[in-house]
Amino acid sequence: MTTARIIDFIKNRRPEGPCLVVDLDVVKNNYHAFRHAMPDSAIYYAVKANPAPEILSLLASQGSSFDCASVAEIQMALDAGATADRISFGNTIKKERDIARAHALGVNLFAVDAHEEVEKVARAAPGARVFCRVLTSGEGAEWPLSRKFGCVPQMAVDVLVYAHQLGLESYGVSFHVGSQMTQVDAWDSALADAKRVFSQLSKQGIHLQMVNMGGGFPTRYLKDIPSAEAYGKAIYAALRKHFGNHIPHTIIEPGRGMVGNAGVIKAEVVLISRKSDNDDARWVFLDIGKFGGLAETMDEAIRYPIRTVHDGGEMEPCVIAGPTCDSADVLYEKNMYPLPLSLTIGDEVLIEGTGAYTTTYSAVAFNGFEPLKAYVI
After folding, report:
1. Cβ(134)–Cβ(174) under 8 Å?
2. For the segment 261-300, what is each residue's pLDDT rounded down to a tens digit?
3. Catalytic site residues (predicted)?
């Protein structure tokens, strides 16, 4: 959402070129909404969503833990004030030397999803705690995250038994229902799988302690979304349903839901044209596209709210594209986007809900365009 603070910043600072502006007050409010909705779950912010130092420092000061995908992200979390016991190395695909480096920094919680990854952790971080990621369907998510990560539940049992045999602490299981998950009951079947893994390992004398329930919590784009409280109630009901009175330690990993609605991208209309004299489709080219930070428009999965100074006037469906010399740099074409007929070259537009997965997706210098500038206020 575009807050008054963001509007004032853009008005007074007049930053040059496309840029992201993030309001820390919104991030703080989101954190406490999750804290209130799921008071018994530890919050591990997914650093990859937006690793701005100001965001990490704020969350560390509020008591957040951190889900990190690399040694660089681990160092960022430590620099922001987190202690190593509040960091999870949540990537299931790690170089052995990176595992060793993380362990040397004090990190003792690692994700795995294969026997081969367990072997690396056992060699590089002996005695560490591991949790195995289980595949989920991702049905209902706008950005599914399974298939590449995780294994079937029965393999998870075997992987955790193997970890135990190699001297690691088989600590728990994890799953991710898919990013921008708008179905509050999506965690139910995944928790059922987690319980089966718990039960099978218990029969073998290995008692798991933790379920990492991943992220998936959405931010608002064009459609309303359930509240954090609604997710909390549904997830707690599913935990009680499957684990009864023996609910394990739980972790959630909000990323998009923590910072998505805190950011707005200021962009400019570079060109408005048609492909023929009788072409019904108006093409609107912005100074930001897929390679400048809007990669999540791939397959038109994420549709961002776009505000203009002409809102309220007559609208027309448009093709929206970015500025680069690459034919893939088209944001919305299959499902054209309504924009005001009075929109013109040079107009400023605000792209809302862009606090997550924009700066980190921005190319370094594709076509010579600078990476997306970011301001945190």
Report:
1. yes
2. 999 999 999 999 999 988 889 999 999 999 999 999 999 9
3. 325
Q: Which domains does the chain have, with CATH numbers?
A: 90-254 (3.20.20.10), 261-376 (2.40.37.10)
Q: Any catalytic annotation for residue 19?
A: no
Q: What would the two tokens of residue 331 be?
A: 């944001």
| 8 Å CB contact between 235 and 217 | no
Burial 1-12 (b: 16+ CB within 10 A, else e): bbbeebeebbee
Q: In whole angstroms, what is the distance from residue 111 CA to residue 347 CA?
A: 46
- CA–CA separation, 55 vs 76, rounded Å? 11
Total number of residues shown for the chain:
377
Distance between CA 244 and CA 259 in Å, rounded? Answer: 33
For CA atoms 100, 105, 108, 110, give the dihedral sign.
Answer: negative
pTM: 0.94
Residue 224 neighbours by CB distance under 10 Å:
8
What does the pLDDT look like over 134-186, one tens digit per residue? 997 655 545 555 568 999 999 999 999 999 999 999 999 999 998 888 889 99
Catalytic residue among 19, 151, 318, 325: 325
